[in-house]
Amino acid sequence: MGAVKSKRMPRAVREQQMMDAAVRTFGQRGYRAASMDEIAELAGVSKPLVYLYLNSKEDLFSACIRREAQSLLEAVRAGVDPGLPADAQLWAGLRAFFVHTAENPDAWSVLHRQARSHGEPFVSEVGSMRDEIVAFVTGLIGAAAREAHSDPALADRDVAGLAQALVGAAESLAGWANDTPDVSAREAAATLMNFAWAGLENLMHARPWTPPAA
């Protein structure tokens, strides 16, 4: 009898295995320092196979950005129950964001540090993800305004600006939390919630802070 042939791994599974290795390598070594040799060795495949499946280092990095951006977006959206009160929705979204970035530090390094440091097309890939998160947060803040007022007190421009500020703060805080020992995802989310919600609540109840006259 002839030897039993081993079952080939499906291409999609092998490709994800390579991308897992790439995210880990890019996240820990940086885009410039990471080599295709390292990625192939970590994935347990030959370097020619990595090139065959994923074309080039640039294409591989772009694919990693798209995959990890989609994973983060799905995690944040899945974490929010639209039936909850506005503050609970915002808290759930923030917590889902910080849990995901804490559990996937290499992916967050790829999205927040590496992709933004090496120009196009990587910056645009991350920018598309950020736009989607900002749009989602804008919806949460708008819902909070509608909950507080039958005729919302916050103008669209104010809501958009608040969403941009909140997402920017979350991005910076996630990087700090991942680099600081013993800072949990819950603690990071609570820090930002305490910082943001008091101000949002004042705005939604027509108690804005007014800058002094110049």
UniProtKB/TrEMBL annotation:
Gene3D superfamilies: Tetracycline Repressor, domain 2
HTH tetR-type domain ranges (all copies): 12-72
Keywords on record: DNA-binding, Transcription, Transcription regulation
DNA-binding region in chain numbering: 35-54
Transcription as UniProt keyword: yes
Domain of life: Bacteria
Keyword DNA damage attributed: no
A Pfam family of this chain: TetR_N
SUPFAM superfamilies documented for this protein: Homeodomain-like, Tetracyclin repressor-like, C-terminal domain
PROSITE patterns cross-referenced by the UniProt entry: HTH_TETR_2 (PS50977)
Name the record gives this protein: TetR/AcrR family transcriptional regulator
Natural source organism: Streptomyces sindenensis
